[in-house]
Structure formats: C-alpha cells, structure tokens
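Quick one - first record:
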Amino acid sequence: MTSGFFLYASRYAVLGAGFAGISVAWHLLNDSPKDLRLSVDVYDEIGIGGGASGVSGGLLHPYSPKGKLLWHGAECWRECLELLNVAESSSSSSSSYTSATEKGDTNESFGNFMVRRRGILRPATNAKTLDLMSDNARNCLASCVVETIDNDVAQDLVPNLCLPLNRAFYYPGAMNVNPQRYLQSLFLACQNSAKASLGRQNITLVKKSINDVLELEGEYDAVVICLGSKVDFLPGLTGKLPLRTCRGVITHLQLHESASGSYPEGGPSILSDAWLAVQGPRDLHMGSTWEWQSRNYSSDVSAEEASRALAELLPKASAVYPEIEKWELAGARAGLRAMPPVTSHGSLPLLGCVDQLIGGGSCKFWVFGGLGSRGLLYHGWLGKLMAKAVLSCNEELIPSELTSWKRKTILTISSTLKLKQSLRKLRSHLAEDLVVLLVQPGFRDQGSGCCPNQEPLRCGERW
C-alpha cells in the first residue's frame, strides 16, 4: 500500500493484442478509479494485431446478413465508434505512428488508411428473404440508417453493378476500417493515457507467449485471456471452451494502371456472398473463405492456397460486380477465427471468470473470446463490460447471454468426471469378481457361461 493519495497498486495481464485484448487494456486504464495506481501488461508474441484481428476485412456495421439489428447492436455500434474516435485522435501524431510502424507491426500491402467512410452496399440476391430484409431495413438504427434503393440509384454509387432482384440495401453510415492501423493507434492511445496520468498508470507490450496462465497467478491481480483461437493451447482450457476454428483467406486485388473501369473514389464497399472492402480506386480486398476445423494459425498464404481462394471467391463477387474479373491477384493473408456456438440470440462471444476451469484463485482468470467474424463490432462494448467486471471482481456485470456457456461447460465436465469415477469403480468391482471366480475350488472353464457345477448362474450371483 502506498501513502497519501494512492491506494493499492493493481497489476493486470491481458493475453492477446487483437480487438478483444486492446479494448480491454484501454478500458482497464480509463474505467479504473482515478485514485488507483494501475499497471497493464499486454502479452502477444507477434505484436499488435498479429492474429486474426489484424487481417480481418474491416467492414463495420451492426446488421446481420438479413439486415436485422444484431444482439445489442446499438451499444456495440456506439462504443465501437467511440474507440475509432480515440484511435483517430491518437494517430494524428505522425511521430507516434512512425515509431509504431518501425516495429514492423503493420502490413503496408493491406492499406495505409485507418477509416474509409464511404458506406456499404448489400445487393439483394435471395428472393425468399427480400421482404424480410425490407422489413428489417425499416427498423434500423438512426445512427446507421439502411436505405432501400433500386438499380438506378445503385448505378450512381457503383457503375456496372449487377442487381439480380433490382434491389439493394445501402448503409451510408457504415465504414471500412484498416484493422492494423486502428489497433496500433488504439494501443498508442493507451500509452498516451498512461503518460497523461503522471505515473499513476502504466501499460507495456510484452512480446512473448504464455504457455500456462497459472505461472502468472502470483504476479497479477487478474489475467484476462483474449487469445482467440489460440486459447485452446492453454493447459487449463484445452477442449473446455465451445469454440470451433475456421481459417479465412482474404485476397488483395489490384487493377492495372492501363486497365479501364477503376472503382469510383467515393464508392461504397460491397457485401454479398463474397465481400469487397475497397481500399482505393485500383486497390481492394476480397473475402473470405471458410475452412472449418483448420489448425493453421499462420497469416501467410501459399501461392496454391491463394489460387484456391481466388477461384472460390471471384465467381461470387463477379455475380454482383462483373468488373472484378479485370482485377489481378496481388497478395493474400489469412487468419484463424474462433467461432462461438449459435444461440437464440445469434453467435455471441464467450465471456466470464474461468477460475473453476483453470483452478486459480477467486476472480483471478477471465476469458474474452469467440468473437468470430464480428470482432470489430463487438470488441468496444464487450471490452468495456469485461474491464468493469475484472476491476470490480463481479461477473454479474456481464450479460448472462455471454456467460451461459460456463454453466453448460462446467456441467459437462462434472458429468464426465462422475462417469469416469463410475467406470473406475466398475473396473474395480469387476477385478474383484474375477479374483473370486479364479480362486474357487474345482473351477473348470466350461465356455458356456455356467458355474463349475454346470448349473446356470442365478441373477445376482458372482462368478
């Protein structure tokens, strides 16, 4: 305990420097009591945005593929916009961004802007869901409106666009975010916040992997695990979280300078069976593939894998934007998503205290994972809730929809342990019975399931 103004010093570890981890770090610093000395260590062996978060498509909006507002979409949208503003403010310092890029944590081939505010266009491609999408559009957020447009209006936005049903849904307030630039800038905002605290706060990026979270138990007040698909590598959590892995490849396409038909400068990105995240008039990303149960964590993509991805995605994209056939493959990146189970509220991330699963102290270990393909939308609001729960050691601050997985997991583990105990007892009894059988005088193996006196066994008798 320190004297005077400060209370106890608190130390927190955040494992993972993707959307979840950096959001939690920011909110730990900014939502903690003002008179609390606080230190946050962010562990990531690759660096900021080195996992699936750093290569995500970056298309940001709060709606499902059928145009319905996602679970707590208003809160998620609001908090994400707030963090974008924080990151953009911190990136205004060119010297700070230069120091970050010198560390090699950005990928220049995947864009150098942070936020491209040109909206998103979703062509209607399924007649069966057209009426439902139109109804959902009328219940949109005022801060992210959905406009139902016809082919003429769509052509003004994106010339040569193909609308199979002469209908599209336009989100003018949606945007395309460069995940690497954003995460770098948000971490810089964390550093700036710590500096402005005049020594009350500290944040450090530790480039190393943690093989067992129990080794951190005596060093930190709490450990927040934000490792995405790599959470399954931790001994205490291996096979215990209801997550499925899915590798997604994103292709980088460019239009040659000599080719006509560049993308309009103010044109929106496109959402369809394959999405197009526009980076510039002759530069865009196309995604994404879905390789379920993959264990390939590398962001690198071989020439063969890139070709397969292009062959899979190009026909889907050209169905709504035929001009894409002129574009050429310029590269590809991949990430391994951690996909959560589907619930009545949709696919929701997994949050909560996991001391019971790991075996640590009270309110010591927490999990924030399973963001799937919506990490950018969810990370702001859920990171805020997670930080508040950790700071107060109160899991009830997290919505029950995000912690319900724990009850099922703990029940399953308990049932499995009971079954194993029952099997051990059964094997023990069988071994005892076998001994009784073998030591009986005059025993002869009759091979017919009968006792030595040739009389059939009666119910309840032991051999």
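second record:
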Amino acid sequence: MKEVILMSIDLRLLAYSAFLCILLWVPYILLAIKTFGLFTMVGYPVPSYDGLPQWGQRLYRAHMNLVENLAPFAALVIVAHITGAANETTALGARLFFWGRLGQIVLHTAGIPFGRTLMFAIGWAGNLLIFSQIIGY
C-alpha cells in the first residue's frame, strides 16, 4: 500500500509556485515561434523579445520576476519547515505569496501598472510573514 505523505500548506504552495514558474514560459515562447519562426528561435543568438506584441513582452518580464522571487520564497518555506517554525502565519504568508504572484502575472501581462505593483507587494508581504515566524516574531 502506498504511504500518503501530507504536505503543509506552505510546502504545497511552494510546489504550486514552482509548477507555475516551470509552465509560464510556454505562452511567450509559442508567441515568439509564431512571430520569429521556429528556426530563428532554436538558433543562436535567440532574438530579443522586444519584437513580440506588448503582452508577450510583459508576460516574459512577469516570468522573470517570478523566477527572481521564487528562490527567496522557497528558502523561507524550507527553513520554516525544517526548523519547525511553520504555522498558520507561515501558511498565510505562503497563500499571500502564491496568490499575489498569480495576480501579478495576470495584471502585468494585461498591462495594469498599479494592480501589478499591488500584487507584487502582497507576495512580498507573504515572504515577510514567513520570515517573521522563522526569527521568532
């Protein structure tokens, strides 16, 4: 019989965030193939994404922003888990990070400047919540 391993909310949302990150490149790469052609995209050097429609450029930047923010989130969730600091507050922080990042991606791609900034700040606040529990506040 297969053993069932239950994950904390924090770890599950870390996994979902990583999954989002590993899939997010697909739409703008398909757009780049449509725009520049397959042989151009598999050759060297790969063209700049500046030639893509605006939404494709914004999606690329949103993906890069998630890549930059996923590592600190992962480190915080893993440290909280290993040290036993994970609790309802870290779960809330993980929820804020995940939903904030998802909202940031959607609003950034749609070109909504203040909304994307608000969503970024929500995700950032989630990281701060997790950190506060690790250091004991």
